[in-house]
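Reagents: none. Just compute today. Cohesin subunit SA.
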Amino acid sequence: SRSPPLPSTQFCHITSNKKPRKSPTDKTVSVARGRGKANGVAQHNGDGGDPVTLFEVVKLGKSAMQSVVDEWIESYKQDRDLALLDLINFFIQCSGCKGTVRIEMFRNMQNAEIIRKMTEEFDEDSGDYPLTMPGPMWKKFRYNFCEFISVLIRQCQYSIIYDEYMMDTVISLLTGLSDSQVRAFRHTSTLAAMKLMTALVNVALNLSIHQDNTQRQYEAERNKIAGKRANEKLELLLQKRKELQENQDEIENMMNSIFKGIFVHRYRDAIAEIRAICIEEIGVWMKMYSDAFLNDSYLKYVGWTLHDRQGEVRLKCLKALQNLYTNRELFPKLELFTNRFKDRIVSMTLDKEYDVAVEAIRLVTLILQGSEDALSNEDCENVYHLVYSAHRPVAVAAGEFLHRKLFSRHDPQAEEALAKRRGRSSPNGNLIRMLVLFFLESELHEHAAYLVDSLWESSQELLKDWECMTELLLEEPVQGEEMLSDRQESALIELMVCTIRQAAEAHPPVGRGTGKRVLTAKERKTQIDDKNKLTEHFIMALPMLLSKYQADSEKVANLLQIPQYFDLDVYSAGRMEKHLDALLKQIRLVVEKHIETDVLEACSKTYSILCSEEYTIMNRVDIARSQLIDEMTDRFAHSVEELLQEVSGTVAVCALLVFCFSAHDLTRWDLFGNCYRLLKAGIEQGSMPEQIAVQALQCSHYSILWQLVKITEGVPSKDDLVALRRVVKSFLAVCQQCLSNVNTPVKEQAFMLLCDLLMIFSHQLISGGREGLQPLVFNPDSTLQNELLNFVLDHVFIDQDDESQSMEGDEEDEANKIEALHKRRNLLAAFCKLIIYDIVDMPAAADIFKHYMKYYNDYGDIIKETLSKTRQTDKILCAKTLILSLQQLFNELLQDQGPNLDRTSSHVSGIKELARRFALTFGLDQIKTREAVATLHKDGIEFAFKYQNPRGPEFPPINLAFLEVLSEFSSKLIRQDKKTVHSYLEKFMSESMSERREDVWLPLISYRNSLLTGGDEDHMSVTSGSSSKTGSVRSKKGRPPLHKKRIEEESSVEGSWMMRNDTLQTPGALQTPQLTSTVLRENRPAEHMPDPDSDPQMQMSWLGQQKIEEVNRKDRTAMNYIKSRSNQGVRRGLMEDDAEPIFEDVMMSSRGQLEDMNEEFEDTMVIDLPPSRNRRERAELRPDFFDSAAMIEDESYYFSMF
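Predicted 3D structure written out:
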């Protein structure tokens, strides 16, 4: 038989018996023009109107594609020039071009000239074209476009494609269009060419099959004896074989033209979608015609593109390879490719694009199925840990890989022998052991639920074998079987509980997925069946498991979670009350033996679930619960008396206190009284164990909440309100006293409870029509507020060195640090909530805000959210709080360094950076923050001149350097207010101050310069230095720029602003708020002017006064400016539009900034080439395979968008 066609890159060397093909660029065709039919096909629209073009026929898709193609073929047979012209216009129109190729152009111009002419007629107003337009109609058009090309080749494969005219013209046109700088032409022609190539590959495959069949027939006939041999048949077969060979050669020439003329250039196109089309189609060719295309000369293109920058291209590579690796017969041909690119594929399992990572894992799984030796242990381990990924599709794909590698049974005989066994000896017995070992070795024990969820779709049979799991835990091992260790038993119990939860709830664990989805009918039925199955099994098994492991707190805490997933009706329907009694007995024993919080909370939750009123077993469980509480209450009362004398009975006290944590209403046992007595005695004596004190505080807290629930649900009497207020008041006093306790856990618990109760019993308690609860509202006095603030400062904002020293020597140092940070974040969040909801005075937040920069990594998000919420509450008071925080930092710096500050020190720079961050939080809308920013400047100026220098008036005020910090907020003043603030500044300045130019006066000079906006103002010059910086603007496709720099205001800009309309656009297409001139504000009603004496701390009274004083001067200045700049006003306005910088989130990291800056250039960047470009690595590879140097002869160009 003949060797497979199209080997490697030999397309260009294939010859044919027919006359040579003309070069696409040399073609000049002479045709006769006739427009009797639209595009050569007599098509009509749905309304019976005029004929429509071939493009419209394909776009509408109302006619069967085969009939459309058949009519075009008929028109081609009648007048092939006219039909081809219609086909050419079809491709032009599919690119979105409004131009039409006319007969004269077709007759006299070459392809390059025609394309250049069409480029000139292209619609430049819109970047959209049919392949990129949104909507279902254009999505259908893409499908119809591809189908049209496929059907066209299929219908022409026996005659027309061999006439050396139609295919020459089409391929020549598509080659020229694919080389265009117009993206629409390049994209559309590449898609058409690749689909054309796919159709030709199918034709070549059919020809190859026919050739093989003809060759076999010829051999069979020739091998017959002379008497039976038919010579005429042999001649016919020889003629047919020759004809097939000629056709094959012609098809190969066509494919060679497309591959070398289009693919090798466009697979590296600047546009990711074009690259993706090429890779997708070459994958189809290799699968469809593996004899010709599945070799290293073509696989290298896919391998190189695995390094592409764009995720969609990498995704197409992986899917193309998946189609190949699915067929095990192709593995020998893929061996070299696997060895060369395996590392890259494995590394792509960690791709930043989750879709790419999922497909990479699936590809690795296919490689594993084809050959387990292809992947090393290290490769497998790189995939194993992805079962713990928070992204569920990635985790599920990794679970499938893990299942194939570890849990798939490969010995059919052993399977058949084990299938007859049950329990621990069943086929799943060893697999469950293996799962436990994998879980333990992964060292991510807190994520058992993630592991189970990852394996759920691929290993449900294994994970639902609860019978086997319980037998492994309860039964003794058979002879020769290794016993589970204590650690393995704990892991198995945890995994078993996770499988129960997954089966009962039928949704992923928290942290995976976007929430609970609606189950299908089949999934709902499976969930019900699984729930019934696990209930029937564990109703009997759970008491035995609790009995065996009742002394192990970790195992018991996990086992006690199982009843919440029961179908509790089974107890009554199956008459299994005796198993319920056994369970209640075991829970009671657990309560008596354990003092761990996790265990007792699990017991409490189990009682709560079993006591649900909807089940008939509620009475039986409630009796058992009440008996237990009665007994424990009596023991608690006796223990309290003993504890008042000496410390004893601790176990019983702790058991009851923790037991009361859950949602059980225990107010009828009056536990608050004993807890309060216990706490008071501990405070007075100072010898209360911290565990008992913490739990007594919690128990008292829950008792108060249960009392509040009762009052809010009914109609409370006055006596009830008075009694609860007395209880709350006394408990708050106890908590306040506990803030000075020597034990940190006690102080932290008291602080959290204080914050919670102050929030609950705040002024919000009476909202929603609950005015009757007014007696229960508590407002913290200044003493309590100060104590809470001091607690936060002492226990939250602590140095990391102190924390590290306190944990030195701990084996779990990192885990403890994370836990300690989590506690401190909770403490800070609790106090910040009091500030946000106006329970604690807002100025207290100044001590919080000043730590924003220093503790940004730990608490930055909390402080930023607090700042945002407080600004929503009161903009002016929030601004005063911000400046107060900066003043506090400045005072602390003065105390450390004295009055002669080093303005270049890192401490001063830190305060300025904090001020810059604060300024950025005011946002872009200067009108909304106008008075707040002005108030901030007022307070800052007053602070700067508050204390005169004791050495005399010729020396700067002590706080004058603070003006340099205040300069950071000057850019947030609107231009009208800058003059007002400047006038207010001059009230504090003496005449001598205006003339000073020494370095010590630089803060005043720089601040004054940042405020000067009038053309006739004295603009100070600074020779020794200046704090003002020149800003720059970088607009990026409508997005705000990443950096915000302060700008030095020009000395005369206000007139320009007066000349503008109120609707000018700021950079980045953001709408400028409407501005109101201070001249116009003079005539407004008096009630709009702030009263200077009303509230000097809250209002902008001084701003209104300063504006009134300077109205006339501003008017004159503005008019003079207009006259002097009348010829430059428009240009100046445009310049100002470009001078106002816009910023994004100020917390963006520098790395994120760089990545954002690079985004706009990605479309024109070259894709990553494989590492084989490196000389050393290339020398290590076989010289003929996967070497990108082989492509040097194929010049590849990267075009930008038109």
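Confidence is low (pLDDT under 50) at residues 1-51, 647-652, 1014-1103, 1107-1202.
Action item: order primers for follow-up constructs.
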